[in-house]
Design a protein that fits this description.
Elements lengths: L4 E3 L13 E2 L1 H6 L5 E9 L7 E4 L2 E4 L2 H14 L1 E3 L1 E10 L25 H5 L11 H14 L5 E3 L6 E5 L2 E2 L2 H34 L2 H4 L7 E4 L2 H8 L3 H28 L5 H23 L10 H14 L2
Antiparallel strand pairs: 1-8, 1-9, 2-7, 3-7, 3-11, 4-5, 6-7, 9-10
Helix pairs in contact: 5-7, 7-8, 7-9, 8-9
């Protein structure tokens, strides 16, 4: 299999065709641009001897490959029989086929103003070991060609940065971006995703019928409220920041629905229903936060609570 790839981004915007995966802090920072949600996906557990086929290419995983996958899963993912990813995610109408941060000229409007870390990682995947990123690039090279972009090319190119050479990630900036995204995902696990995983465990992760709602190769998207209730319990300041976020989100959802109704597209209707559900969940959560003192929930690890407040406060500056 070809395991040397070069990458040259022309900022064409072709891959910016949907809202990105984000951290909770990034959603707080861009509360007036991105509707937030929780995305839950099922992640395949890799086994030695397993064959991965990418187009006309095929590779066989060995024990070291699988151990590297397991190391990432232990720090970034969640296990309940199967392995699951839980991330914050931007949400919008698929019919728009664009990221909400994409400007009219096709450029990123927040490129220099808090661009999500996941965008810096493109075209790599933080849930895949560095030694296997060539598999990611082989698959995404096909997607790029489908979208009409030649940004990922096999072999070395004079006009592109060499990302992977003989299966080894050689680009320093790419390695740094992957490391920072993984650290962010690990921090998310500490701040809220592990708590949400445990809160949803009985009704979702331990229920075969509920798990059937997670589409193969896709994500189950639910309201961000479980994450907000988790972090709001840290302190009065965290609670106030979550209330402010909720107000911004309800206004953003109302604007998005109004524009969708003006478009009169039948395929927008299910998303409109889901957004109305998000807004109702936000209103109910705001009522809880307004009526309940944070001190009543603020027990447990004080250092963890301080970390959560700092995390949200920094994002809200």
């Amino acid at each position: 299999m070809v395991n040397t790839f070069s990458f040259a981004c022309s900022a064409c915007g072709q891959c910016c065709n949907s809202p990105p995966s984000m951290t909770l802090a990034e959603l707080f920072q861009h509360r007036d641009r991105f509707i937030g949600c929780i995305a839950i996906g099922r992640v395949a557990r890799r086994r030695p001897g397993e064959k991965l086929r990418i187009g006309r290419y095929e590779t066989v995983l060995d024990e070291a490959d699988c151990a590297a996958f397991d190391t990432l899963a232990d720090t970034l993912l969640h296990r309940a029989g199967d392995t699951f990813s839980i991330t914050a995610q931007g949400f919008d109408y698929p019919s728009l086929a664009r990221c909400p941060a994409l400007a009219d000229d096709g450029r990123c409007a927040i490129h220099l103003h808090g661009k999500p870390l996941t965008c810096e990682v493109v075209p790599l995947d933080p849930l895949v070991p560095d030694s296997l990123q060539h598999l990611v690039l082989a698959e995404r090279a096909q997607d790029a060609a489908y979208l009409g972009s030649a940004c990922i090319q096999e072999g070395k190119r004079d006009d592109a940065a060499l990302l992977v050479e003989q299966g080894r990630l050689v680009d320093r900036l790419a390695r740094d971006a992957l490391a920072r995204r993984r650290r962010a995902l690990e921090q998310e696990r500490f701040i809220w995703t592990q708590a949400v995983f445990e809160a949803l465990r009985a009704d979702l992760f331990d229920s075969p019928a509920a798990l059937a709602r997670i589409p193969a190769g896709g994500f189950l998207t639910i309201s961000l409220v479980p994450a907000l209730l988790t972090v709001a319990a840290a302190s009065a300041r965290s609670r106030a920041l979550c209330i402010d976020y909720i107000d911004s989100q309800i206004a953003l959802i109302d604007r998005g629905i109004a524009r969708a109704l003006a478009r009169r597209r039948l395929d927008d209707r299910p998303v409109t229903q889901q957004l109305r559900g998000f807004a109702n969940a936000y209103r109910h959560a705001k009522g809880q936060l307004v009526d309940t003192l944070a001190a009543e929930h603020g027990n447990g690890n004080l250092s963890a609570h301080a970390a959560i407040e700092t995390y949200l406060s920094q994002a809200s500056r």
